[in-house]
Write a structure and sequence with these properties.
alpha/beta, six-stranded mixed beta sheet, 11 helices, 15 strands, elongated
């Protein structure tokens, strides 16, 4: 029987890495917060470790980006490691592809409780609690930015280890990857009881027997990295049972907001609706957000939204509303998926494809209901799908046919309009 212990598993801190693809809009509370977000996220990791009385923090690569590991970033990281040491927390670190061993240039002292694994070899370091070894941590770092070797094959749990943890910054399942490629079978064959992986920025648990875990990054870095980002608290029982719990650490969260403009008549009403919807985000995330505003639907605001000047005006107006909020939303971009209003009565007068479609619709609509349903059903039965599977006829009622026909006027016209628009490109 072993001894109960716990640890935090995190990866891909990317301290000091600038956010990607941000709109250069108004200065606001987000200006300073964005610059500090990656550091605040790691502070939260240490806070969680202290609050949960974890025995260790495992950082599975990419503490920095080699292009942005400033002296200030390295000093900020060291400060948090000393704070962890004061709480009695050991720290185990491997270098990833973005922070290979050769990229850590500054000679900043770190506490004795910090263990950094050397590059391109597997090393075993004991996790000690009160002078007793409770687990062995095996790790391999990147010496340079790329390593095509399957390092997972070099990990082997030694006889006598009560619990073995493997640390690897790897791309699982891609044999051609330059990032220490391996397979799930390679990881399982090692005998490790828990695999603390890094490299993928989206968290996922690949296996529970043994646990093979990507915690994702601690702070989203672009609109492609939406939703909660954080770390796992891992509790190991005396008999080796493992439980995991995810804790969000992101200081700022990337989100998409989708708004239908169909019923919105002017820009003031649009801005009002955006701010109203924003309130629900604040309650949902309980932290600042960077928001992509996705506008959909067909309405009178389409023309303004389709122009760059219109988008710029809307972004500036909604961001001004957030200027003095502590839990702010920074609207970084507008994605226009709107369409112009269709005047069907005017389109009926034109001798084009849509006009012909609408006249055909009117001809069928003017029939008596029984005749109309009979013709529509004949058209349906003549379709390739019903000829191939005639049994579908048993599931189609006259009520279903009538409802579908009522929707066909606007939906058919919209589809023709969309095809016309695509041809313009």
């Amino acid at each position: 029987m072993g001894k109960h212990f716990s640890f935090i598993h995190c990866a891909d801190l990317h301290l000091g890495e600038p956010f990607d693809g941000l709109h250069s809009g108004n200065v606001g509370p987000w200006t300073e917060a964005i610059g500090k977000a990656t550091f605040k996220a790691f502070e939260t990791v240490v806070n969680i470790a202290a609050e949960k009385r974890a025995n260790a923090i495992l950082i599975s690569g990419d503490v920095y980006n080699s292009d942005h590991h400033s002296l200030a970033a390295q000093m900020a990281f060291a400060r948090e490691l000393f704070r962890a040491a004061q709480a009695g927390i050991q720290v185990f670190i491997i270098h990833g592809n973005h922070d290979p061993q050769e990229a850590w240039q500054a000679d900043i002292p770190l506490p004795d409780t910090v263990h950094i694994f050397p590059g391109n070899e597997v090393t075993a370091i004991p996790l000690m609690i009160d002078g007793e070894k409770v687990a062995t941590v095996y790790g391999a770092s990147y010496k340079t930015m790329h390593n095509k070797e399957n390092m997972a094959r070099l990990f082997h749990k030694k006889e006598g280890d009560e619990f073995a943890i493997g640390m690897l910054h790897t791309e699982v399942g891609n044999p051609d990857s330059p990032y220490m490629p391996c397979t799930v079978d390679n990881l399982k064959a090692s005998g490790m009881d828990y695999w603390a992986l890094g490299h993928e920025h989206t968290r996922r648990i690949i296996s529970e027997k043994p646990y093979i875990v990507y915690p994702g990054n601690t702070q989203g870095l672009s609109c492609k990295e939406q939703g909660p980002r954080g770390c796992y608290f891992v509790d190991v029982g005396a008999f080796g049972t493992v439980t995991t719990q995810f804790y969000p650490t992101d200081a700022i969260r990337w989100m998409d907001m989708t708004l239908d403009i169909s019923s919105i008549k002017n820009q003031e009403e649009l801005i009002r609706e955006v701010i109203k919807e924003r309130a629900t985000f604040r309650a949902l995330t309980e932290r600042p957000d960077i928001v992509r505003l996705i506008l959909t639907g067909r309405g009178p605001m389409h023309k303004a939204i389709a122009s760059e000047e219109g988008k710029e005006f809307i972004l500036q107006a909604v961001n001004e509303k957030e200027q003095f909020r502590f839990i702010f939303a920074y609207f970084s971009k507008i994605i226009d998926r709107t369409k112009p209003v269709l005047d069907l009565e005017e389109r009926r007068k034109l001798p084009d494809v849509m006009g012909e479609y609408l006249h055909s619709y009117d001809a069928i609509a003017s029939m008596k209901e029984a005749d109309r349903n009979r013709i529509l059903k004949e058209i349906l039965m003549d379709s390739p799908e019903f000829k191939r599977i005639p049994e579908l006829n048993d599931f189609v009622s006259e009520e279903m046919i009538s409802e579908a026909f009522e929707q066909a006027e606007i939906e058919g016209a919209e589809q023709i309009s969309l095809e016309d628009t695509n041809e313009d490109y």
